[in-house]
Amino acid sequence: MPDAARQSAPRILDAADAIREGTAQAMRADERVFVMGEGATDPKGVFGTTTGLVQEFGTDRVMEMPVAENGWTGVAIGAALCGQRPILVHQRVEFSLLAMEQLVNNAAKIHYVSGGRHRAPLVVRLVVGRGWGQGPAHSQSLEALFAHIPGLKVAMPSSAADAKGLLLGAVQDDGPVILIEHRWVHYARGHVDPEPIAMPLDGPRQLRSGDDCTVVSTSYMTLEALQAADALAAAGCNVDLFDLRVLRPLKLDAIVASVRRTGRLVTVDTGHATYGIGAEIVARVTAEAFSSLRAAPQRIGLPEHPTPSARTLAEAYYPRSPKIVATIGDVVGMPKAAIDEIVHRLAAERDAVPLDIPHPSFKGPF
Amino acid sequence: MPDAARQSAPRILDAADAIREGTAQAMRADERVFVMGEGATDPKGVFGTTTGLVQEFGTDRVMEMPVAENGWTGVAIGAALCGQRPILVHQRVEFSLLAMEQLVNNAAKIHYVSGGRHRAPLVVRLVVGRGWGQGPAHSQSLEALFAHIPGLKVAMPSSAADAKGLLLGAVQDDGPVILIEHRWVHYARGHVDPEPIAMPLDGPRQLRSGDDCTVVSTSYMTLEALQAADALAAAGCNVDLFDLRVLRPLKLDAIVASVRRTGRLVTVDTGHATYGIGAEIVARVTAEAFSSLRAAPQRIGLPEHPTPSARTLAEAYYPRSPKIVATIGDVVGMPKAAIDEIVHRLAAERDAVPLDIPHPSFKGPF
Amino acid sequence: MTDTTTTTLSVVTDEPTRLELFRSMLRIRRIEEEIARRYGEQRMRCPVHLSVGQEAAAVGTCSALRPTDQIVSTHRCHGHYLAKGGDLRAMIAELYGKATGCCGGRGGSMHLFDPAAGVLASVPIVGSNVPIGVGAALTAKQRRRPDVAVAFFGDGAFEEGVVHEAANFAGCHRLPMIFVLENNLYSVYTPVDQRQPARAGEQPMAGFAQTHGLAAEHADGNDVVAVHEAMGRAVVRARRGDGPSLLVVDTYRFLEHCGASDDDHLGYRPVGELATWRDRCPVAGTRAALRDAGLLDVATELAMESAIVREIDEAFAAADAAPYPAAHTAMEAVHA
Amino acid sequence: MTDTTTTTLSVVTDEPTRLELFRSMLRIRRIEEEIARRYGEQRMRCPVHLSVGQEAAAVGTCSALRPTDQIVSTHRCHGHYLAKGGDLRAMIAELYGKATGCCGGRGGSMHLFDPAAGVLASVPIVGSNVPIGVGAALTAKQRRRPDVAVAFFGDGAFEEGVVHEAANFAGCHRLPMIFVLENNLYSVYTPVDQRQPARAGEQPMAGFAQTHGLAAEHADGNDVVAVHEAMGRAVVRARRGDGPSLLVVDTYRFLEHCGASDDDHLGYRPVGELATWRDRCPVAGTRAALRDAGLLDVATELAMESAIVREIDEAFAAADAAPYPAAHTAMEAVHA
Ligand SMILES: Cc1ncc(C[n+]2csc(CCOP(=O)(O)OP(=O)(O)O)c2C)c(N)n1
Ligand SMILES: Cc1ncc(C[n+]2csc(CCOP(=O)(O)OP(=O)(O)O)c2C)c(N)n1
Ligand SMILES: [Mg+2]
Ligand SMILES: [Mg+2]
């Protein structure tokens, strides 16, 4: 197929498939790349992201793990120091809490402490759970914990293309990269380049343009923010929307430049608001674009309590596009009636589908 | 001794002694209180904070622990659920990384998830190491990780009185409290009430008053900030200095009120700046006092790399009072020459004592 | 110095107890079957990990305990909770996310607890419950209570370091603690031989017991009386101050790992393995044994069944009728 | 199925090797004595954990390895690093925080490594190095290299769950891995009996080996030849694909846990215990044995000593003369 033709026929995948494709391509290209995970070789293949890999690459390169997260994270670090390039996957962020010591003390620091001699090329994939009442220990979006640690890189894709591209970028990186995949982003569909093109881990992507407000979102909340931005645009309010993508190292130049123009900032991320991702964005942008700010920057994040299981409680827990609209509308000084109109319309659309599942095809338990 | 006489003769202790005294008093008052730690009963008694306790209370209540942090944290949580009130101590923050799963998933959430039925009254004391080249895995000040977790309370004392009072407050609390003690704060001396008076875990303490700038500091950096504030005051620049004390739940009313008056904010904490404690303070204060702000809020924290061992590298790593003076001076618009004069004087004073030890009496290895 | 071989302590199971063991297993089976039947309605909107096939482990162990003895369970906690006397209505309501659930709807199926019954907590993170159980045993020792604590865990959890840490702690302090390892041969879809080395010997887990100073018991998880008696010995030792035990129960999960269906079609288990274990079903086997011994006649069993069905129907009806927790309560009880 | 008892594999130690074992121990002893002597100058401004008294464990094991075999060590890493062939100058410079240190001054005494010698890493967090060693063994298997990996750990580290996790992993995958447990009876100032249950039997750690599919070896840590031969057997098994081993070495720390002085005055060890172990000093004992066997005359030993002293003096002089890392470099090499 000639290049032009290939480009003209976009290939639509969901992010889970894109991750699997990227993993397979990275493994074909470099025999040092291998996968470790609880369930990596099982019939469900970590939400479909590793399905089929063991058939192609064998159990030496797609390794089933014991339920021993700290141990096999250390094993991965040792292998990485010896030149291998492991990809680790945990089916929930929470399971990696057991491996914090290895990640924070060893993986993050060994390059630095060795004066740059050691390299720990490690990709750690963590999945954020959501929905179907899975409760407080299977739903945390703890990127702020990792993003605080010098020596780690931390990225969160929000699209199928980024899910593949950032994974490939992470595999190429010579240090440890934490890739946080929101479970609902696995369902995100879009054009994915069939070639294995690594995306550099170098900052946000602008998704919408406008002069009224700068909006910075992460991961799944980018999808909610897009919905909000489009609804607002229809009402004549245009925002610069940036998907943050890479939380550490944090490149904010484009966002600062945007705020210098818009004078306004709203952040929307998947974690708890307090001491969360939005706080850093607000603090840094405020320091750098203070004189341009025309309104107080606002943050949207999870409230300060664990995830409740019951639907009626989870409903209030997860902010959605109507809330984003309301916040932006407020920051830009839209008339209350205009805000309310959009909020009600979006809320009605959203209420038509169950709030605890990502997709109509989804039927519990996870 | 009559009460008046007692009050007129302040009793000077260092924070390590104050902690030991508070612990003993809590144990005398309530037989459910007990201590667990690696070295809790050994001759050095966790930097002197547990010395002598085992002699008074026996090994059933002052328990030596195996080197198994996650395990004994879980044991403590189980005991707390059964009505006991354990005080856990880790000689370095880093060791508690092994216990993150227990702390974040169980301790922080069990009250919430049980609809308020379970209680996990737990005090977890973590010591931040510093100095004597102890390197990157014995020196981290990771309060931001804990402060991000709903369900935990997090406090950091900066004085002997607070070290005792906050400990007693934490012991009285019916939920899990993380108390982060900077190793150099253990040397802080001051008046400590001989009575066991629990301080509520309820927010900052104002240490200096002034209209020129609001300064918020944590833990050991409060001591550096005090030095900076006093040097500035001598030059006619007066700041409101708040020791944050309690990081979660975060009460910022007094600080917001102060910024409404001063129009300026500088934060100084012991952790890495990016995604750190200062970011939340800046973000929240900016949201609440935006229209009063006359300059961009500034943060002082650790740079974005691990702690190097060599003195020459650690020197640049830890911010000190001269840097605080320079930052505040800048924010309030002091003339450069005036700033420089104070900075040089403070720097000269500080350079006269070694930078990698807290106190002239200190002679390695820790 | 701990003797890690099974002591010759003899515990015998009388006839009423054997009947009660059966009834308790049958009740758990029927409750989980009803959950499975209704799960497709999508009104229990939380993950469920059913223990159909593993009832003898839950019942054999918990029947040897008192209400003041504490158990800690896992993601697969229904059986333990019920066997220990946990309130059925509070459990079903919790699965429905109702305010009347044991967690007020906040936890779902993996967080069952019941203080009145001595179900201290269930924890969805693998292995994470085990040290919590040891904390209960420590409390019993510190507070001089005559209670025993029990931690249930699976062959997957056995791989978690924290389980070793917890066992070492219990062994070191000779706590009144019993570690019940339910070996159902799988962690999710991964067989144990892909996750652990092969171990020789009659008592493959004796090394773990020896390492951590535990006495070792082992029982066929399809023989509820054997489980009950092995547990009984461990309880006697614990209660009289002879320290902790490990009890290994060989068992098998009939239904899917998570959810309410069968998952044998996924092909992760050898063909015929499930059938072999189903043939040794603990409920059917116990029924047959009781019949053979003349302890269970059809009328008695029918009466049992109908009482159980009535109780189940009532629990589901109550759950159905109960209110959901109000949205505004979500912010409450973050701090104690 | 792994045989967890020591195989009868015979490894013999010839005379030149025995002499070299002695020289290597003597060298480590002299190096650490010199560190201790100079530590009071406060120019090595980092914690040091000396291994005086434990030299036979380091030398007996590392002498059975090749440069391409990888070891991972702990906070107490000097002996392992030196025994494996780590560069002395880079070590002393690191203790002085100099740019010429193996970590460029960034790590200090607890982070020693030397790729040329197969010292993969030293890790100051207890137990944390052990799975990293298993990662090296996994790499050898995956990349089909004939190398062996070794993790050193102490009796304290034995309590960390991650050590069990790492051992299970190595056993499950039958990796070319050797776990060397140096039991010096203390974790900091806490004796092992306050932290672990008592274990019966001739081979108290056999249960750990059995649990995790390791072959078990045991050696007197004051007998360098015994350590060398036990390690030799483990290495042979690992290299020929027979899987991992545990080697337990009984040993004792003569000086304080951290720092360069004696700490017996703190009273945490029974009176006389240190003296008993000092009487069995591995360096003195080996010297005596070699003398008795006529393998070491005074002239040879003097020549050894003076070569060692010269090397040490040069290393300290070089460290002294070396530059400190420049402050502005502190921000470099955060990301690879
Ligand atoms: C720390 C952790 N890792 C992984 C998981 C995902 N997980 C849930 S159940 C399960 C299987 C555990 O197997 P086992 O302990 O044998 O219990 P079983 O499901 O067989 O009853 C796993 C791996 C988890 N909940 N917690
Ligand atoms: C996870 C962790 N917990 C605690 C410590 C503090 N610590 C440093 S050395 C040490 C003793 C470890 O004992 P052992 O493993 O026997 O080694 P030894 O010092 O006897 O050589 C401890 C507890 C640590 N470094 N890491
Ligand atoms: Mg299982
Ligand atoms: Mg030791």
Kindly describe this structure:
Chain A has helices at 3-8, 15-29, 45-48, 53-57, 69-81, 100-107, 110-113, 143-147, 160-172, 219-234, 253-262, 277-289, 311-317, 321-332, 336-351, and strands at residues 12-14, 33-37, 62-64, 85-90, 122-128, 153-155, 176-182, 189-191, 205-208, 213-217, 239-243, 246-248, 265-272, 298-302. Chain A has 366 residues and is an alpha/beta fold. Chain A folds into two domains: 13-191, Thiamin diphosphate (ThDP)-binding fold, Pyr/PP domains (Rossmann fold, 3-Layer(aba) Sandwich), CATH 3.40.50; 205-351, 3-Layer(aba) Sandwich (Rossmann fold). In chain A, helix 2 packs parallel to helix 9 (160-172), helix 5 packs parallel to helix 6 (100-107) and helix 14 (321-332) packs antiparallel against helix 15. The longest helix of chain A is centred in the middle third of the chain and has 16 residues, at 219-234. The model of chain A has no long low-confidence stretch (mean pLDDT 95). Chain C has one domain (7-194, 202-283, 306-320): Rossmann fold (3-Layer(aba) Sandwich). A six-stranded parallel sheet of chain C has the order 2-1-3-4-8-7, with helices on both faces. The N and C termini of chain C lie far apart (42 Å). Residues 1-7 of chain C have low confidence and may be disordered. Chains in contact: A-B, A-C, A-D, B-C, B-D, C-D. At the A-C interface, helix 13 of A face loops of C. One thiamine diphosphate sits between chains D (75-76, 124-126, 154-157, 184, 186-188, 257) and B (38, 67, 69, 95, 98).
